Amino acid sequence: MQEQILEILYANDGKYVLLEEITSLLNINEKELKENIESLKEKGYDFNSSPEVGIQLVESPNLILPYEVKRGLETDYIGQNIHYFSEIDSTNNVAKKLAEEGAPEGTIIIAETQTRGRGRRGKQWISPAGGVWMSIILRPQIPPSEAPQLTLMTGVAVAKAIKNKFGLDVGIKWPNDILIGSRKVCGILTEANAKFSTIDYVVVGIGIDANVNTENFPSDVQKSVTSLKKELNEDIMGPELVQEFLKIFEDTYNEFKEGNFPEILGEWRRMSKTIGSRVEVRKQLGKIVRGEAVGITNEGALILELDNGNLRKVISGECLHI
Ligand code: BTN
What is the fold of 278-321? Predict the structure, then answer.
């Protein structure tokens, strides 16, 4: 009902609408209408109203509310089914549960804040208000070994969305960090669930520091991160960023399903800040590999040229540009 009320007010382009007009269009009484308006006010919508001229929408909250995302969403299936939380432990946790229960491909889970956001390698992911914390459920028919390709594909989609929308100098650090300059603005955590030799579902978790105040981050983290707000010196509109990303993500994922991963990897290479850099990759058990990053394989492994000239494939690890 609230969405229908908003639809009427948005359709009138900020002009006043008589209450009787809304009640008759929606077949509700005035008391119900006023109750719904009050709930919308609690979500951050602001209205002007007077008995003579009716009601006018003057401000919408800059929150990633499902209605605001769906209003300008141009996708066929990615993001058409949205689960929204103002606070949740981790959107990836909810996504996994919903996927187990049979949620369709393209379902997304979005939260304004996460209390136990998870990063790669078991790290905590700080998720205050202002960020875009989102997970997408996918059901690709691929062997589990190809799941890392989805992380690379998602990195390309996020980088393109930020570049298109804000014209910032966006790059990708292997395997999945989105950078502006040399600072991280987005991380991706892909979690796959396989039954026998095929994937049952994949949850792709995306964390974008959109309107986040990074000054509140711990001082060691502050040095290496940024936010869109910090780069642009103004708040960005969360729903617009999500719409742009979901459209690019759907197009890229459709390409992926059609077998065009090599082309996507080509885009990854062009946007990569890792290829051509000297890097240090910290692997498990304290092992460190250093060299120049010279390429990436179709499986997403980084190819390093070691100081002795040998080539070495690195499948996973934490990568530092040195
Ligand atoms: C990383 O770079 O370490 C990956 C960070 C991934 C964070 C996102 S935020 C939405 C989703 N939910 C989580 O708990 N993590 C991912």
Answer: SH3 type barrels. (2.30.30)
